Give the backbone structure.
Amino acid sequence: MSRASRLAYRAAKRAADPDRLIWERDGHDWPNRSASRFIRAAGLNLHVQEMGHGPVALLVHGTGASTHSWAALAPLLAGRFTVVAVDLPGHGFTDLPNSEGLSLPGMAGALSELIEVLGIYPEVAVGHSAGAAILARMCLNGQIAPSVLISLNGAFLPLHGLPVKLLTPVTRLLVSIPSVARLVAYRAADETAVRRLLDGTGSNLEPEGIELYRRLFSTPTHVAGALGMMANWRLDALELELGRLAPALVLIVADNDRTISPRDAARVCSRVPSARIVSLPGLGHLAHEEAPEMVADIIDQAVVAPRKRARS
């Protein structure tokens, strides 16, 4: 078989793989598709979206999501920033790494290598849920030095109690069984199940958003990435180091968030002198998908404030 034939065969086999998202097959209608490209970093092919002009705003989604989470918010920010969003390792169209690559240090390391390859210096860091913890870890590691860290219902603090202590070993066991991810993905093909899961976050999404989550959750590799991230996640060290955060910290907190308790923001504020809370009434864990215009305005105001202080 000639080299061209071998490459064609591998491409056809890859395109037929039902366990993972394939850009040529599944990305034809992906939100903000024209801004997408693939970058090789940390031994992975990472799906990255870039748009806009101005200071760099790095956007990092949470567990189980992807760049689609910024579908409406990113274009709004692109009028003032160069927006860079990425599918985390094991999520969306980005490759699935080993278990260490799905940990908090592993995620932070992969994104650090990515921004080095891109040659960017984020002025603003915006993270949703676990994405906020990744950005905080990068700040503490000296991997990024933004003037502002925007947390959207950020998950900075470890959960406590006996059920939580049992959860991680159980999740690790589930991740070690390949058929589990396929079973979860099979169940998620049912839109009703996905809608029920999203309703549990306290957010009310449009049908288009629900369908994108259904496509993600019905993909075994994406499910494996999300489960692996949960199994390898540790926040104890981050909690102890939060007081060393250098950038101004803005905690955008939705009061109907059923995933991360809004009370956690007060605990974070007690550890971070620069932190302040901005409340969003009536919105849930996915507030930036429910009300992107409102969140964009808060981000814009939060970035202007540190600049004014720097000039004074």
Summary: The longest strand covers residues 44-52. The domain at 38-158+237-311 is CATH 3.40.50.1820 (Rossmann fold).
